[in-house]
Structure formats: C-alpha cells, structure tokens
Amino acid sequence: MHTRKQQARERLVVENLYLWRARRRGFRHRLVCFPHAGGGANAYASWVGKLPPEIELAAVQLPGRQNRIDEAPADAVDPLVHAIVESLRPVTDAPFSFFGHSSGSLLAFEVARELQARGGPSPRRLFLSAQSSPDVVREGPKLHSLPESEFRAAILSLGGFDAELAEDADAVAELLPPVLADFRLWENHRVARVPLLQMPILALTGQSDWRAPLSTVEGWRAYTTASFSSQMYPGGHFYLIDDSNDVPGFVGRTLLEPEART
After folding, report:
1. What pLDDT is recorded for position 1?
2. Is residue 42 included in any domain, yes or no?
3. Using CA atoms, how far apart are residues 226 and 211, in angstroms rounded to an integer?
C-alpha cells in the first residue's frame, strides 16, 4: 500500500541532464511534465504528493534555470527536442503521458511528434495547458519584440510570480532573461501542421487567461487524428497553481481511466 509517509519521501531529483524524476514503487503510468517559459522542473515539485499513487511524476529540465542556471537557454527547437527525446529513454519503458504548461505545451507537442516519427514509444495522452494553438501563435503579436518595460509588464500580468517577488524590480530583472529567451524561441518557431499526432489531446486553460482564451486553444484539435477535448478552470494563465482547481488530481484520474490504459 502506498502511504502518505511514502509520498512525503518522494521528491523530484535529477535523473539526467534534461530529466528529473520522483521514483515511485508500484506505479501504473508516468506523467512527464514540461515547464512554462523561464520555468524549471521544480515547477511541478508539489505535484508529487497530489497525483494518485499509481502515477509516477517526471519533469523536463531545460538549460538556463535552477541546477542548469549557468547554461545559456536553448535558441533552437530541433536540437532541444532531439536532446530531450534521448534523455527521456529512462521513462519511456512503461505507459506515459505528457503535460505541458504555456510554452511547455509547444515543447511537449514537438517531443511527442518526434517520438511518434521514430516509431515510438509515444505518449498515451497529451495535456496542453494555457497555450494557444500554433496557428494563433504564428499570426498573433510577438511579446518578445516588445520594449523591455512592456515585456516585463506583460509577463507580470500573466501571474505566476509571488506577489512580494513581483514587487522586487531587481529580482524580476534576474528572472526575466530565460523567460524572454523562451518567448523568443517559441514565437519564432513554426509548428508544422503535419504529420498529425495519433494520440488524444486534452487542452486546459483558465477562464480569464488573456494569453490563451478557450477560443484559441480549440485549434489544437486540428493537430491530432485521435480525440480532442478541452477543460476550463477558474483563474488566469497560472490557474493550475490554485489548489482548489486540483489539476494534478484531474490529470491523474484521466490517466487512470480504462481507455487511457489500453
């Protein structure tokens, strides 16, 4: 039996350069999470104790943050995707799914497509959170092109920063470079429409998220031959940090549904 004490001992630790994992005995499914712009693997640390005991959590770690702070952020998508695909080998030997938040959704999508192109193994499901479809990104305004003060204001308006931290100009200035690098990377990247994914996509977003309103995430249905559905939560761009929304619980329950295990 998986006890609360066991869950408390489990935590995300470094598995390899691009991967952190909270090893869990007796799991039935793995969830690999991709962080938002400027975020690191530790953004999902609290999910370890919130996921059902049958779900093992892993998270992708990108250069330029946390234990990789001294590295330059990625400036090209294809090499990044290939490096992550190789680094995910330790967690693709059992059923797994992807969850990406904001620009992490675009990365999760591209990694899933590369895995599929290689003949698998591929994710069973793809959860894309707070991210407009590639068509909208392609045609929409580019935040990375804004003057520094306007970019900072736009990023702070999305939330996700502790209130005290957001009021510290020096702290925000330190945190913004990897955020800007990620926005530049993904706003300049063109996601091809084909080949289509062959796995279900579930898009999640916040009701008041100006960056990814529901109407703009619905376009993801055109990127898979499998089923598509969407889920809306109270809150803005970082709706998932609100415990009352219980996003990890929803994701875990969805993954344990019979159709997700076939």
Report:
1. 46
2. yes
3. 26
**Phi then psi for 63, rounded to 5 degrees?**
-65, 150
Residue of 14, 20, 16, 12 whose CA lies nearest to 49: 12
* pLDDT > 80? residue 210: yes
Long-range contacts formed by 137-140: CB under 8 A, 24+ apart: 137/106, 137/186, 137/187, 137/191, 138/190, 138/191
What CATH number does residue 244 fall under?
Answer: 3.40.50.1820
Question: How confident is the model over 79-99, as pLDDT tens digits?
Answer: 999 999 999 999 999 999 999
Specify if 223 maps to a domain: yes
Average pLDDT, the chain: 91
The number of distinct structural domains making up the chain is 1
Structural domain including 63 reads 4-139+192-261
Classify 24 as helix, strand or coil: coil
Task: For 22-32, write each residue's pLDDT tens digit.
Answer: 999 999 999 99
> Does some domain include residue 168?
no
Which residue numbers are catalytic? 102
With respect to residue 20, please indicate whether it lies within any of the assigned structural domains: yes
